[in-house]
């Protein structure tokens, strides 16, 4: 069993900032080619949010077109740059037990259960899992308590040390953590949003974030108030499962070195 995770593809209009500056369509095309050429083809691909940059119909049409070469099932969840309503219109009801009003659903792919969560707050950069969404999650986890489960979401449920990104993180992460702590079958909590790979212990499991297919945020511990982005190191995460190993997660690099741009210099945005 192999699940590929890509994230933060940020497909934009042809004259949009992300396309003009970072050629995000070409980056996603390379990521798709990379997945197709893996020695073992993924059984499923999950895109953990910020699929497009401004949430327009055109962007979603372009995003879907770029994914078409993938022959395996592809599932998506919204990030803060996405429009939940338009996403649901384009991709329809995904998985099973879809939640009304949100892009939350279950994918049972033997022997795993995948749960997709919607942390989107319309018009806001940060994320949230309200009581309604958490109740839905609790119910899904209680249904099959002995089945290995992986949770996918956009906003990581932990602080990163990057002040700008933490200012747009997941609100009330402890409430989510309390749900996770009650269900030891959760193998991973997997997110996007921060355009780099970080992992940490989280309420009895492991939480990790996926790189972007386009731009990578640099973890600058010497200057946590800054936000710098690089075109180096586009990658995806590969999550493999076997009875012998359990769930293993690896980083699969897509592209080679690229220049670094400083987006926030500690005091102001530079773009």
What can you see in these coordinates?
There is one protein chain. The chain has a single domain, classed as 4-Layer Sandwich (Purple Acid Phosphatase, chain A, domain 2). The protein is of the alpha/beta class. The protein has helices at residues 17-22, 24-36, 57-67, 84-91, 131-143, 163-166, 173-181, and strands spanning 2-6, 44-48, 74-77, 105-109, 112-116, 127-128, 149-152, 170-171, 186-191, 199-202, 205-209, 216-217, 227-230, 235-242, 246-253, 260-264. The strands form 4 sheets. The chain has a 6-stranded mixed β-sheet with strand order 4-5-7-9-11-10.
What's the short story on this structure?
By secondary structure, the chain is an alpha/beta fold. The chain has helices at residues 17-22, 24-36, 57-67, 84-91, 131-143, 163-166, 173-181, and strands at 2-6, 44-48, 74-77, 105-109, 112-116, 127-128, 149-152, 170-171, 186-191, 199-202, 205-209, 216-217, 227-230, 235-242, 246-253, 260-264.
Give the total of beta strands: 16
The main pleated sheet reads as: 6 strands, mixed
Q: Per the principal axes of the C-alpha atoms, what is the gross shape?
A: globular
**In angstroms, what separates the terminal alpha carbons?**
42 Å
| Radius of gyration over C-alpha positions, nearest whole angstrom | 17 Å
Main sheet: strand order: 4-5-7-9-11-10
Number of helical segments with 4 or more residues:
7
What CATH architecture would you give? 4-Layer Sandwich
**CATH third-level topology:** Purple Acid Phosphatase, chain A, domain 2
Unreliable stretches covering 5 or more consecutive residues = none
Q: How many domains make up the 3D coordinates? A: 1
- Approximately how much beta-strand content do the residues carry? 25-35%
The CATH class is identified as: Alpha Beta
Helix content: 10-25%
The CATH superfamily turns out to be Metallo-dependent phosphatases
Structural class by SSE content: alpha/beta
SSE order: EHHEHEHEEEHEHEHEEEEEEEE
Average residue-wise pLDDT: 95
